[in-house]
Specification:
Elements (H helix, E strand, L loop, with lengths): L1 E6 L3 H13 L4 E6 L2 H9 L12 E4 L8 H10 L7 E6 L4 H9 L4 E4 H6 L1 H14 L10
Parallel strand pairs: 1-2, 1-3, 3-4, 4-5
Length: 143
């Protein structure tokens, strides 16, 4: 089962992602956060029913009110228990500065929502293949 933390403030975009996973028939456990601060609460929670357990992937929007995606990336990469988190950016921002900043924070990929929307099934297939082929760090690896 693929585990995903979806971090996006846009309800329509969140629903589209959830619908896409469902339509693709992917066995997925998806938690949703509306901004970076809410995502960090989930990732750092002492409540086992709320916290995401490794391994998991993050789908992260950049442009959000409150704590945006780049601030979230900075916090995650500074945190010794979260720094190895696998994060894919899924955003409307086609800014070279945003893309460079995201990759400087070691994201696994940068996907424009406009391109993903036209081939969302391809994006989901890529995530499923990534999840099933790549050996991800887990809690026993000191994550």
């Amino acid at each position: 089962m693929i585990k995903v933390l979806l971090v996006d403030d846009d309800l329509v975009d969140r629903m589209a992602v959830l619908r896409g996973f469902s339509r693709a028939g992917l066995d997925a456990e998806i938690q949703v956060a509306s901004d970076g601060a809410a995502a960090l609460e989930i990732l750092r929670s002492d409540d086992a029913s709320l916290r995401m357990e490794h391994p998991f992937l993050v789908l992260l929007d950049l442009n959000m009110p409150g704590m945006g995606g780049l601030a979230f990336l900075e916090e995650v990469r500074k945190d010794p228990t979260l720094r190895r988190t696998i994060i894919f950016v899924l955003t409307t921002s086609d800014s070279d500065e945003d893309r460079l900043a995201a990759y400087e924070h070691l994201v696994a990929g940068y996907v424009l929502k406009s391109k993903a929307g036209r081939n969302f099934e391809g994006l989901l297939a890529m995530l499923q293949a990534y999840w099933s082929v790549v050996i991800l760090p887990n809690k026993s690896d000191g994550v």
